[in-house]
Amino acid sequence: MAPEVLDTSVPKTNRIDIWSLGCIIYRMFAGCLLFKDIPEVYRYTVTAPSLPPAVRDAGFSDSCMDFLRDVLQPSPEDRPSAEGCLEAAWMMNKVPGSYSIGGDLYERLSELELGAPNIETFSERVANRAGG
How far apart are CA 58 and CA 40, in angstroms? Predict the structure, then answer.
Protein backbone atom coordinates (compact mmCIF):
# COMPACT_ATOMS: atom_id res chain seq x y z
CA MET A 1 0.00 0.00 0.00
CA ALA A 2 1.35 3.43 -0.95
CA PRO A 3 2.42 5.55 2.04
CA GLU A 4 -0.18 8.25 1.38
CA VAL A 5 -3.18 5.89 1.38
CA LEU A 6 -3.83 6.12 5.12
CA ASP A 7 -3.33 9.90 5.29
CA THR A 8 -6.86 11.24 4.89
CA SER A 9 -5.59 14.82 4.58
CA VAL A 10 -3.82 14.09 1.29
CA PRO A 11 -5.84 13.87 -1.95
CA LYS A 12 -5.26 10.57 -3.74
CA THR A 13 -4.06 10.39 -7.34
CA ASN A 14 -3.15 7.62 -9.76
CA ARG A 15 0.39 7.84 -8.37
CA ILE A 16 -0.85 5.25 -5.85
CA ASP A 17 -1.06 2.86 -8.81
CA ILE A 18 2.52 3.72 -9.78
CA TRP A 19 3.66 2.68 -6.29
CA SER A 20 1.65 -0.54 -6.67
CA LEU A 21 3.35 -1.20 -10.01
CA GLY A 22 6.73 -1.16 -8.27
CA CYS A 23 5.50 -3.57 -5.59
CA ILE A 24 4.02 -5.90 -8.21
CA ILE A 25 7.20 -5.91 -10.30
CA TYR A 26 9.23 -6.69 -7.21
CA ARG A 27 6.92 -9.56 -6.27
CA MET A 28 6.97 -10.96 -9.81
CA PHE A 29 10.76 -11.12 -9.88
CA ALA A 30 11.59 -11.86 -6.24
CA GLY A 31 8.62 -14.10 -5.47
CA CYS A 32 7.80 -12.40 -2.17
CA LEU A 33 6.32 -9.18 -0.85
CA LEU A 34 8.52 -6.10 -0.77
CA PHE A 35 6.91 -4.76 2.41
CA LYS A 36 5.46 -7.17 4.95
CA ASP A 37 3.30 -4.60 6.79
CA ILE A 38 2.38 -0.91 7.03
CA PRO A 39 5.06 -0.07 9.64
CA GLU A 40 7.68 -1.39 7.23
CA VAL A 41 6.38 0.94 4.51
CA TYR A 42 6.66 3.89 6.88
CA ARG A 43 10.19 2.91 7.93
CA TYR A 44 11.10 2.91 4.24
CA THR A 45 9.63 6.39 3.73
CA VAL A 46 12.02 7.71 6.38
CA THR A 47 15.11 6.17 4.71
CA ALA A 48 14.23 7.00 1.08
CA PRO A 49 15.55 7.92 -1.51
CA SER A 50 17.63 4.78 -1.13
CA LEU A 51 15.98 1.57 -2.24
CA PRO A 52 14.67 -0.92 0.29
CA PRO A 53 17.44 -3.41 1.13
CA ALA A 54 15.32 -6.22 -0.33
CA VAL A 55 15.53 -4.58 -3.78
CA ARG A 56 19.26 -3.90 -3.54
CA ASP A 57 19.92 -7.51 -2.52
CA ALA A 58 17.66 -9.19 -5.11
CA GLY A 59 20.15 -9.14 -7.99
CA PHE A 60 18.11 -6.86 -10.27
CA SER A 61 19.85 -5.02 -13.10
CA ASP A 62 20.85 -1.41 -12.49
CA SER A 63 18.18 -0.18 -14.90
CA CYS A 64 15.49 -2.21 -13.12
CA MET A 65 16.62 -0.85 -9.75
CA ASP A 66 16.53 2.70 -11.18
CA PHE A 67 12.96 2.09 -12.33
CA LEU A 68 11.94 0.68 -8.94
CA ARG A 69 13.62 3.59 -7.13
CA ASP A 70 11.58 6.02 -9.25
CA VAL A 71 8.20 4.32 -8.80
CA LEU A 72 8.72 3.64 -5.09
CA GLN A 73 9.30 7.25 -4.11
CA PRO A 74 7.54 7.97 -0.79
CA SER A 75 6.12 11.25 -2.06
CA PRO A 76 3.55 10.81 -4.86
CA GLU A 77 4.79 13.99 -6.56
CA ASP A 78 8.23 12.41 -6.98
CA ARG A 79 6.90 9.31 -8.75
CA PRO A 80 6.71 9.25 -12.54
CA SER A 81 3.40 9.38 -14.36
CA ALA A 82 2.12 6.30 -16.16
CA GLU A 83 3.46 7.80 -19.40
CA GLY A 84 6.80 8.41 -17.71
CA CYS A 85 6.93 4.76 -16.64
CA LEU A 86 6.31 3.63 -20.19
CA GLU A 87 9.17 5.80 -21.41
CA ALA A 88 11.67 4.48 -18.85
CA ALA A 89 14.75 2.85 -20.36
CA TRP A 90 14.16 -0.40 -18.48
CA MET A 91 10.54 -0.64 -19.61
CA MET A 92 11.49 0.05 -23.22
CA ASN A 93 14.44 -2.42 -23.19
CA LYS A 94 16.75 0.45 -24.17
CA VAL A 95 19.56 -0.50 -21.82
CA PRO A 96 22.28 -2.62 -23.46
CA GLY A 97 22.64 -6.01 -21.82
CA SER A 98 19.63 -5.52 -19.59
CA TYR A 99 16.66 -7.72 -18.92
CA SER A 100 14.66 -8.44 -22.06
CA ILE A 101 11.06 -8.74 -20.98
CA GLY A 102 10.06 -11.14 -23.78
CA GLY A 103 13.07 -13.45 -23.97
CA ASP A 104 14.09 -13.51 -20.33
CA LEU A 105 10.54 -14.01 -19.07
CA TYR A 106 10.08 -16.90 -21.49
CA GLU A 107 13.31 -18.49 -20.30
CA ARG A 108 12.40 -18.08 -16.63
CA LEU A 109 8.89 -19.48 -17.12
CA SER A 110 10.32 -22.40 -19.07
CA GLU A 111 12.64 -23.21 -16.18
CA LEU A 112 9.64 -23.23 -13.85
CA GLU A 113 7.74 -25.47 -16.28
CA LEU A 114 4.67 -23.23 -16.25
CA GLY A 115 3.88 -23.52 -19.92
CA ALA A 116 5.52 -20.33 -21.13
CA PRO A 117 3.86 -18.71 -24.14
CA ASN A 118 5.45 -18.97 -27.55
CA ILE A 119 7.12 -15.56 -27.76
CA GLU A 120 7.70 -15.95 -31.50
CA THR A 121 3.94 -15.73 -32.14
CA PHE A 122 2.82 -13.70 -29.13
CA SER A 123 3.31 -10.29 -30.79
CA GLU A 124 1.51 -11.53 -33.86
CA ARG A 125 -1.47 -12.73 -31.79
CA VAL A 126 -1.69 -9.41 -29.96
CA ALA A 127 -1.59 -7.51 -33.26
CA ASN A 128 -4.32 -9.71 -34.73
CA ARG A 129 -6.57 -9.14 -31.69
CA ALA A 130 -6.06 -5.40 -31.88
CA GLY A 131 -6.78 -5.31 -35.60
CA GLY A 132 -9.91 -7.34 -35.63
Answer: 18
| pTM across the whole model | 0.66
What fold characterizes domain 3-98?
Answer: Transferase(Phosphotransferase); domain 1 (1.10.510)
Residue 119 CB-density burial (10 A; 0-12 exposed, 13-18 middle, 19+ buried): middle
Going from the first residue of the chain to its last (132 residues), give the mean pLDDT of each consecutive group of 10, the final group possibly shorter: 84 90 88 87 78 75 86 91 86 64 59 56 59 56
Sequence spans of domains, the chain: 3-98, 100-132
Interior angle at CA 4, CA 58 and CA 8, nearest 5: 160
